[in-house]
Amino acid sequence: MIHNIFEIIQPSVRDYPERTAIVTPDGEPITYRRLAEIIDGFAVRTSQAGISKGDYVSLHAVSMTQYLCMLFALSKLGAVYVRAPDEDGHGIKADHVLVDSASGLSGPNIIAMDFSWPSALATGADAGGTGFDHEADICLIMGTSGTTGHRKQLGFSLALIQEKVEEKCVAFGPLARRTLLHIPPTTPFGLQIALLTLRSGGVVVLPKRTQPLTLSLLLAGGVDEIFAPPAAYSAWIEQLKTDGVKLRSLTRAVTTGSFAGEALVREVQTLICENVVSNYGSSEMGICAYAHVEKLAAIAGAVGKVADWIDVRVIDDGGNELPRGQMGRLEFRPKPGRRRAPYVGASAGPNDSAEDWFSPGDIGTVTQDGMLCIQGRTTDLMNVGGNKISPASIEDVVNKFLGTTEPVCALGVAGPQGFDEVVVVVSTSQAKRIAELPKLIEGSNLGLGRVHFLAIKTFPLNEFGKVDRTRLREMASAEITRQRQLNPR
Question: What are phi and psi of 230, to 5 degrees?
Fold first, then answer.
């Protein structure tokens, strides 16, 4: 039994004290010995600031490296890390909010603390913490990205964190020596990959402040493996193509966060790394499917083989289970002996046990041999003239025609007749080809009626690196409304 999350990586601290554990965005290497010193020092300072076992604590105005170290420190004290509430109020109220004293922030429940790196003298200092009493105790409360339509809070126990780390070990196998973690550790997936890397004695390389700087790190050979969303790969590829260069050989590139289109995957294999792995999952369930992209190429929408620890079913609008191969709403649950992260606080509901089916809000199919194929989200389905249209069917046509590695999004905005009108949004780099798209869509026989086409410079992204379709729809709707007012019909 372990009593805090630091114990997950403690063997690496013991066995590889002088090996680099973390490379900060500024390029500073932190050894495993130094990492333990920092965590111990933060635990002492946090205890002296009045934080004790059972307190709910959130962090604000700290760097990613400070954040990671503080998670370990809070866990040593038996304090529960909670994500600070969003601007819309979703979140768990914290007893205390820790901020860097250098930030100058103040307010109710805010405790200003010195977040500079502690000296080596702090190592082993008694912070008065005993960790958590049981592995089933909730030690972290983290937010979802809105998978089920609105943000919810998830509780992770020590036992559940260990289980999810093990699942990622099975899915990805041995990690490379230096792993670029482009999924922030503020998310469940990012944190679990960080723990897996540190547990195996590897190096967590945090991305630099900008994509071009991170690309420079990759070009310099400072990374062996990448975990990143499609949007990050797309940005790197555009720059690599502009500069006419390729990356040095990498062990593996893992796409996370959302489905990577065929054109993007092909460019990743050509310019970044031939060994590309896709995975699909959610904060609640963890990894649900994964596979090397070569196994997915011939199957539309394929994201991976269903994981051994997951049950999946496809249901129709009436809640009836459909045979494999038919399209419907996807639902998942852990197999016996496995768990999913429960909702906590106001997010918790009566039907929230590990035995309950969980719907991430996606529509798709499962082939006879267990390949999971995603066709879009139920919330993104468009009601065009009374017919339900999946954005994926439109995006696939446009993507193949443009051959672009940048995002292509099809959205529905309210039309004057009460039905949705389709808006296709592409990057400004494709703006010159927008004139070709109406004929393409008309010839696709999708029955879309009037279609609008927009080009934008930057797609809004959420913290997972996915295109934020809600914000994009708001932007598109505002632009279409403006165009209607300028050119009434």
Answer: -55, -35
pLDDT of 90: 61
Tokens 């994500």 belong to 83
Q: What are phi and psi of 320, to 5 degrees?
A: -90, 140
Q: What is the pLDDT of residues 87-96, one digit of tens each?
A: 555 667 889 9
Note whether 138 and 92 are within 8 A (CB): no
Residues 6+ apart with CB under 8 A from 320: none
Contact 177, 390 (CB under 8 A): no
How many other CB atoms are found less than 10 A from the CB of residue 300? Answer: 13
H or E segment and range at residue 32: helix 32-48
Q: Classify each residue of 119-150 as buried b or exposed e, where b means 16 or more C-beta atoms within 10 Å of its C-beta.
A: eeebbeeebebebbeeeebbbbbbbbbbbbee
Mean pLDDT check: name the lowest of 45-59, 136-150, 329-343.
136-150
Q: Is residue 135 a contact partner of residue 159, using CB atoms and an 8 Å limit?
A: yes
Supply angle C-alpha 417, 385, 148, rounded to 5: 100
Record the tokens describing residue 198, joined without a space.
């540190």
The pair of structure tokens assigned to 247 is 């990356």
pLDDT digits (tens, 9 = 90+) for 196-217: 999 999 999 999 988 889 999 9
**CA distances (Å), origin 214, targets 193, 207, 375:** 19, 6, 32
Task: Tell me which residue of 250, 334, 247 sits closest to 286, measured CA to CA.
Answer: 334
Under 8 Å between Cβ of 321 and 313 = yes
- Longest CA span, the chain: 74
List, as one string, the DSSP characters of 181-245: E-S-TTSHHHHHHHHHHHHTT-EEE---SSHHHHHHHHHTT--SEEEE-HHHHHHHHHHHHHHT-
Q: What is the pLDDT of residue 484?
A: 76
Q: Under DSSP, is residue 411 helix (H, G, I), strand (E, B) or coil?
A: strand
Helix (H, G, I), strand (E, B) or coil at 263: helix
227: closest CA among 203, 261, 209, 245? 203
> What pairs with residue 64 in β-bridges?
none
